[in-house]
Amino acid sequence: MSRNQYDELAAYMSVAGNHRILTHQEEIELATRWRDQQDPKASETLVRCNLRAVVKIAGEFRAHYQGSFADLVQEGNMGLLKAVDRYDPERGTRFLSYAGWWIRACIKEFLLRQRSLVRMGTTQKQRVVFSRLGRAKAELASRTGPALKGKAREEALAEILGVPVKVLREMEGRLSGHDLSLEAQIGDGDSETTFKDFVADHRDNQELTVGRIQQAELRHQVIKQAMHSLNNKEKIIIHRRFLIDRPDTLKVIGVDLGISRERVRQLEARALKKIRQTMTSQGYTAEDLVDRSAAQYRQVA
Hints:
By secondary structure, this protein is an all-alpha fold. It folds into 3 domains: 1-115, Four Helix Bundle (Hemerythrin (Met), subunit A); 119-178; 209-298, Arc Repressor Mutant, subunit A (Orthogonal Bundle), CATH 1.10.10. Helices cover 69% and strands 0% of the residues. The chain contains 15 helices and no strands. Helix 4 packs parallel to helix 6 (95-115), helix 7 crosses helix 9 (165-176) and helix 8 (150-161) packs across helix 9 (165-176). The longest helix has 23 residues, at 206-228. It is extended. Mean pLDDT is 79; it is low at 117-121 and 290-301.
């Protein structure tokens, strides 16, 4: 910790210790003023009188974090601010009980982010494993000693944590590993080989990619030609039945065009037949029309 960080943390600890603990009635009054009147003094008092809770909770996580204690306190402050904004004074819960949950949640989220550049612990069960695995291991060791291993150990730990064995196994694997740069060298200091040289590229080669693009352009032109073979009513029906995000029903289109639902169906069938004939004459099948996304057809409608 730098000298400036040390001084800032010392000042923070001094402020935290100089404010008394609020009574439940005072919490309700302050929270109500903040909720109803957005009184900044009420919010500030709620925060300042609960700073010592941030320090206490941050201290619970200090043993599991090798970085600055000030970082844990800062994240705890974020949780305290969120608690002030979300606290409902009419529920009867003490503010500190509610704020403690938010303080711990923000610190846990920070530790998850710091643990790896790769996002982990995205589900509630994964977060439980991350935050309680150490205590669960200690509890299991006190029960059975070091003899329990393998599948039996995993099942026992999963039972303590209340999570599936699959989740436990996955998170243990993540937590036991470390991030590795793709630019890291392999071999001696003179080697220019890096890990990324061994990462497989599963994308199509250039010939296949260019061929796919050319095929799409040809299909685009054929569809455009097929659309030009339709009369105005047929174009309207095809557009409203197939080329918009929420296609209209035959009945709705019939009302707008002043024709019956059955007549709309007949015109739709005739239009699709014309499109299939045009595509077939160019070497495409009916499936080529059906399988393509509506976005492509909007460009030629």
